[in-house]
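Quick one - first record:
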Amino acid sequence: MDIRKFQNYAFVGIGSNLNSEFGAPKDNVLEAIERLKNLGVEPLLVSALIESKPLDCPPGSPDFVNAVVAVIPEKNAEALTFLHELQRIENQMGRVRSGLKNEARVIDLDLLTFKAVVYQSDELNLPHPEILNRSFVLEPLQDLLAKAEFDHLIEFIKKLRLKRRS
């Protein structure tokens, strides 16, 4: 599955830790993967599914099932429009936002990177500012990317972090 050029892809982090009409969290992740197929021009590349402990979640939150999907976006696709499509899928699948940070959820779709776009607004920051702090994102990314390309992506993100701080 080794991706050799991350700049061609949008990487989407997927997580679930609640049951839904689709079934258990694993079923929610698989349903989201099916729905993401409509956002790209080629077949999706999908990491292995992993289980992870809740990070910065309210006490008693259930464990998550996570994955990362690589999508080649439509040629003229924009990052913010792509984010809105992810949010549409979340809403269709029953995602509820009460305002509580990192609450349990049926589905969570995070736009991690969109090609090599650097974007900052109140609504979207690219690359996702927490990629390097989340093993449940890094492990699936390693599953998708060739070693040298994974290292290249991490270096790209680290350089942007330094620029943002200065």
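second record:
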Amino acid sequence: MTRETQQSRPDPAHTRAAPAAAALGSAFQENAAAIYRFIYAKVGNRAAAEDLTGDVFLKATRWLAEDRSADSIRSWLYTTARSAIADYWHDQSRLPSIPLEDFDAVLFCGTDGPEEVRRTRERALRILAALPEREGEVLRLRFLHGYTAAEIGRVLGLTPGNVRILQMRALRRAAREPGLAGDNGAERSDDG
């Protein structure tokens, strides 16, 4: 075979790869957003949904070696997405969970060690104690117990609008009060 004939004859591996790459590109363009939305609806986490969508299309690069119809590709993508979602939730179920029975234990479970947790707890309690009783109670119910403005209003005999006003005043007062809101040098443990 002459050099000229070798150059004019296409490489068989290359000719098989071209339709597969075109099929993958077309499948991606037609289905990526829908597959992402499908996965996001099931996992509720944007980063995880992006990763899982990428995994589905990575698997598709191996599977699309043959010519397939658009319906076959779409069906395969959704089946693979369901499998990826099941794997995701299986992995998530192995992670430790924290019971919410004792909000105090969950609220002050910092990663900076017991000293930082102690300082945070003391600061929160100091802020609540320094506020007028009604404002402190509104913040306790709202942020520590998770009540809505309407629920707080029923407990305290106020309208939801009044509860929101008290909450805003309490937060502003806590931010303004010297020694309460903040990061004065005595409470900081870092050099910055």
